[in-house]
Amino acid sequence: MASIEEGFALFDYVRIDQGEMAWIGQILEPNRNISIVNSSRLDPTILHGLRLMQEHPEVQSVESVQVFEIGILGQYDGRQLLTPRLRPLPGAVVSRLNIEDTSRVIGIPQRFDREDGSSNVVGELLNAAGVPLCIDALKFNYHIMVSGGTGSGKSNVSANLVEQALFGISSTAYLRYFEVRHGLELEEPYIFFDGTLVYEWLVATQEGVDLYESLFASGKQCIGVMKNIKANVVFSTFARALRTGELFIIETLYDHFSNSNAPNRNQGESSRGTLSSFLNGAATRVLRGIFKPRNKVFGFEVHEDHLENMLRIMTADCQMNHAGHEIPFLLNRVDEEVRRNFNSRILQDRIALRMATQSEELFFEEMNERTFR
To answer: Is residue 152 part of a domain?
Structure first.
């Protein structure tokens, strides 16, 4: 039994409670209306019920009953589905399954949001209100099938899955790749990066690791400046104790990627699988910390060999005459130059070229998909 206000619909996930036992089910046939008297609006039973409702506020008259057919998916112990050895009896209470239990029961990974504003969400379940469809790296250990009718969004979902597998459903990885490449091509010996110095999802690929190792071996000195540290629990906690002019080194990049420092780990990013060659090598020499030149605290990432020089330049370049906005001015120049020269089609064409060398069929399929979009 359930209240009409629940608003159940076809294929909704529901929880059935009876005493200390619970089941998870799915609605297979919704809203079958059955009158408990007959079809006449002037039936004496209905009229008598209406009169009782007027005389006694606690009395409610039911004109019809809505019957829903529910398929039992399993018995529920609060953590997982079990084989149902018993069935619920008449009178059991039925309610809509909440978001957390729905995700847990059908095996959807937990949602996580990254510092760059992206997330691991590729869509939303149609048959469960507010339940995001999330993907993590473990799901790519298996075959994935995307099916649907013409125009239903298969290409869009497939593109989202590919981006999630490679770069975390975000164009940020593409941008960061070309930012580092651009930094290598510049003749400047000192480089500021807007955000982290090392982007986690790039060092999960050999191409990204090679790129960063080339940067560190180039003789150029670099620093990444994080303007906003609110999303980082550990950084924001230490920032409260920082006084004007103080700097605090909190961890190495190895610590940040490691599970041992869970409160400061960007949930989901390190699970992408940072290559061990980078994790046990360069990551141990990249320092992460916070700096407060005046009123505003911001974070930074810098190679330990570049710490002294880059902090001197960063301090000198802070806009001390703008209280609360003491961010290095050079960052704005870097942003303008990189974003003006960045063209995402370069990467798209490179992917198409790789497909053409691997399989002519893959290449033409990609071209057809682009034309369709």
So the answer is: yes
pLDDT tens-place string over residues 286-328: 999 999 887 788 899 999 999 999 888 887 777 655 655 566 6
Distances (CA, A) of 148 to 135, 139, 233, 354: 19, 20, 41, 27
Count the domains in the chain: 4
Whether residue 302 is found in the same domain as residue 358? no
Domain, as residue range, for 234: 172-335
CA–CA separation, 268 and 109 (whole Å): 10
Residue 8 DSSP symbol? -
Please report the pLDDT score of residue 29 as a whole number. 86
Q: Which residues contact 155 (CB under 8 A, 6 or more apart)?
A: 369, 372, 373
Element (H, E) at 123: strand 121-124
Identify the residue whose tokens are 């620093």: 223
Q: Is the pLDDT of residue 62 over 90?
A: no
CA distance 102 to 24: 9
Phi, psi dihedral angles at 302 (to 5 degrees): -155, 145
Q: Name the token pair of 372.
A: 């369709």
- pLDDT of the residue at 199: 85
Q: First and final CA of the chain: distance in angstroms?
A: 47
Residues 203, 64 share a domain: no
Chain-centroid distance of CA 134 in Å reads 7
Tell whether 32 is covered by a domain: yes
Pair 190, 316 in one domain: yes
Question: Structure tokens of 370?
Answer: 């682009």
Number of Cβ within 10 Å of residue 76's Cβ equals 22
Q: Is residue 290 part of a domain?
A: yes
Judgement on whether residues 214 and 247 belong to the same structural domain of the protein: yes
| Domain C-terminal end among 105, 130, 145 | 105
Q: For the segment 11-58, what is each residue's pLDDT rounded down to a tens digit?
A: 888 999 998 899 999 998 887 765 555 556 566 666 666 677 677 777
DSSP string, 140-154: GGS-------TTSSH
pLDDT tens column, 252-271: 999 888 854 444 444 334 34
Rounded Cα–Cα distance for residues 297 and 326 (Å):
9
Whether residues 176 and 163 fall in one domain: no
